[in-house]
Amino acid sequence: MLDQAYQKTEAGRAEIKARALPLSRSARNLLLVIDGSKPARQWLSLVQGVGEADLAYLLEQGLIGASAAVPARAAAAPAAVVPAAPESDKTQRRLAAFGESPAMGYEQLYAYLNAHGAKSLGAMKRYMFSLEIEQCQNLPDLQDLALSLVERVAQTKGEEVANELRQAVGIRS
């Protein structure tokens, strides 16, 4: 159990928004940050106050599930729906950056941003970024967040690091 990597399920993402279950603060923090990038043992050592019982509870409630190398849903993710006529500057910016046929669908971009997207941010900013990811309802929301992340990284780490991130998330140069 501790050597397995886990990721949030749809129920887990819904729980983050709804806060319906009586989770302890440490269990909720684990749910917020867990993704398939590390085995459970590492997550337990990173989140203060969390234990195996908290991990088991999240599993029992269906809030997390075993992570595969490539999530099964990512392959079957529906194509992004892009409006024919841009509605706003934000939409035009997103279309210019990602094009009408983005390289990543919702599940793929969600997984990437959770696992790798905020590595250039400090610890507290990474935590806040995880919360921002969870508030994204669809692919355009995630794309807007990815663009925002690129801007933040460019300001703090420079254009070279920002360009690497642009390439990784499929933003056109």
In short:
The protein is mostly helical and 173 residues long. It has 10 helices and 2 strands.
Overall description:
This protein is mostly helical. 60% of the residues lie in helices and 3% in strands. A two-stranded antiparallel ribbon has the order 1-2. Helix 6 (89-98) packs across helix 9, helix 7 runs parallel beside helix 9 (139-157) and helix 9 runs antiparallel to helix 10 (159-169). Mean pLDDT is 80; it is low at 69-86.
Q: Largest sheet, order of strands side by side?
A: 1-2
Structural Rg? 17 Å
State the secondary-structure class. Answer: mainly alpha
Q: Name the overall outline.
A: globular
- The total count of strands amounts to 2
SSE order = EHHHHEHHHHHH
Through-space gap between termini? 42 Å
Residue ranges: pLDDT <50 for 5 or more in a row? 69-86
Question: What level of helicity do the residues show?
Answer: 55-70%
* Main sheet summary: 2 strands, antiparallel
Mean of pLDDT: 80
Strand content: under 5%
Number of helices: 10
